[in-house]
Automatic annotation (TrEMBL):
InterPro entries attached to this UniProt entry: AAA+_ATPase, ABC_transporter-like_ATP-bd, ABC_transporter-like_CS, ABC_transporter_ATP-binding, P-loop_NTPase
Protein name: ABC transporter ATP-binding protein
Annotated compartments: Cell membrane
Membrane topology: Peripheral membrane protein
Molecular functions (GO terms): ATP binding
Family classification: Belongs to the ABC transporter superfamily.
Top-level taxonomic group: Bacteria
Swiss-Prot/TrEMBL keywords: Antibiotic resistance, ATP-binding, Nucleotide-binding, Transport
Domain ABC transporter positions: 5-236
Pfam families named in the record: ABC_tran
Organism of provenance: Salininema proteolyticum
Length: 304
């Protein structure tokens, strides 16, 4: 797979007045293949957005190298700008314009025909809201309009900075389906997100960042497999006598709210033993997921 993005030893330090320097990005490096859906994960202050903004050409790096579609995004390149689409963390629309007027303005900036506006309205599901003013849209609709603005120039690479933040679960799921559809068209997608389930659903590979560095990088499935974490199996406590629970104390056992939760590395054998005891009512099985990887890599302490 050819690379759409190459990042090597990327660095950025902010120097605020009357405060110590903040080393936001410390030698980050990765590549993103053409047509890949790539995620950048990390806690607040990890350096995700700063990294993304340097790749987009919004910020100048202090060191390192970035190439997007074979070109450096800094200094500004009009030819490269026409080939990428950027959805920022905060929506910023032209005041008092309707949805259609907003997209027409962007289409003119990118030299796109009027037909492109109608096409994008249909892609993001905003055709019925074409005459509505942008500030009157719901949160989910505004997020879709933000994606539409990023797509209006027919980009090869799309950057998404927390595109589903503040959305309700239904709107978030709908957004995931939209982003998958966009990626299926062959566009390269780069996403930052706080939602581990979102990254597992969308991304071919993810990089987990903390303190300005990449600590893990692989496919979500490979990262989870590499964790070698136990399986948690929970059943109603009323189905097991104390003696039966005692018989299973070679496993990790936790009692809480009328349930018994076992921790095991051989879930098949435990399920057989529970079935023999007639204790499968309310059975819940939880295997390791990307959130477990994330917490294992970045820690569990509070972040400001």
């Amino acid at each position: 797979m050819d690379s759409a993005i190459e990042v090597a030893d990327l660095r950025k330090t902010f120097r605020p007045r009357n405060a110590p320097p903040v080393e936001a990005v410390r030698g980050v490096g990765f590549s993103v293949g053409e047509g890949e859906f790539f995620g950048i994960l990390g806690p607040n202050g990890a350096g995700k957005t700063t990294t993304l903004e340097m790749i987009e050409g919004i910020l100048e790096p202090d060191g390192g190298r970035v190439a997007v579609l074979g070109r450096s995004p800094w200094p500004h390149s009009a030819e490269l700008t026409s080939r990428i689409g950027v959805q920022l963390q905060t929506n910023a629309f032209f005041e008092f314009l309707t949805v259609t007027e907003q997209l027409r303005t962007y289409a003119q900036l990118y030299g796109q025909p009027e037909e492109r506006v109608e096409e994008i309205l249909d892609v993001v599901g905003l055709s019925e809201h074409r005459r509505q003013r942008c500030e009157k849209l719901s949160g989910g609709q505004q997020q879709r309009l933000s994606i539409a603005c990023a797509l209006i120039g027919d980009p090869e690479v799309v950057f998404l900075d927390e595109p589903t933040s503040a959305l309700d679960p239904q709107a978030r799921r709908n957004m995931w389906e939209l982003l998958r559809k966009i990626n299926a068209e062959g566009r390269t997608m780069v996403l930052t997100t706080h939602y581990m389930e979102e990254a597992e659903f969308l991304c071919d590979r993810v990089a987990i960042m903390d303190s300005g560095r990449i600590l893990a990088l692989d496919s979500p499935a490979s990262l989870v497999a590499g964790l070698d974490a136990p399986t948690h199996i929970k059943v109603g406590a009323h189905q097991l006598s104390d003696a039966q629970v005692e018989d299973l104390t070679d496993l990790g056992v936790q009692r809480e709210n009328g349930t018994v939760e076992f921790e095991t590395r051989d879930p098949q054998a435990l399920l057989v033993r529970l079935a023999e005891a007639g204790a499968l009512e309310g059975l819940a099985v939880r295997t390791a997921n990307l959130e477990d990887v994330f917490l294992g890599v970045t820690g569990r302490e509070w972040r400001d």
